[in-house]
Amino acid sequence: MWLAANAVKTKRGLACGRLFGENQCVTDGIARWIGSGSNVVRRSLSGLWRLEAQLKGVRFEGRVIFMGRPVLSVAPNSTFIVGPDVAVGSSVRSTVLGCFQPCVLRTLAPGARLVFGGKVGLSAAVICAGLSIEIGGGTLIGAGAMIIDNDFHAYSPQGWRGENQTNARPVKLGREVFVGARAIILKGVTVGDRAVIGAGAVVTKDVPADHAAAGNPASIFPKRR
Question: Active-site residues: which are they?
């Protein structure tokens, strides 16, 4: 009797396992289908966001992928150039870390320059140029990073006022730089080729090529190979 009862339980368990396994397969299949469909929709909207950017004055030098709608603005008589094969992630699911905000990319004053080299990738990043910001080809900019070349405000006898250019100093990132999530690169900084900026770092001084920067304020040391 004991053997017979256990045999029945085993058969029921196998049947339930097969049932739940099949249901799980169906659920996973539906989830993958929805996910792939969402990716198709996001990529199909990329052309619309490109058109919007062009109407605002952005100049494209090749293919670009917009995953979600970024926040873009181009000041009159400023320059905003995007090189070929650039990827801009703004939608929540466009990166494995998730985007808590869209990319914010702006030129803030007449004469300002914001230039992206080819094959740059960024997600949920804020990059605002009052004077000049250049991002070298192959650079990756992590979720929530900020790159700014000015203080956005200046103090006068009348109090604080908005100011984007008189206190600005150019920022330049070399080729194949890696900027970690939530890092901040401030005005006047030059980052050399293949440098690594650690997550959460606040960079206030130049970082040589093949070096790393980490901490607040960032300390600089040779990159481990």
Answer: 153
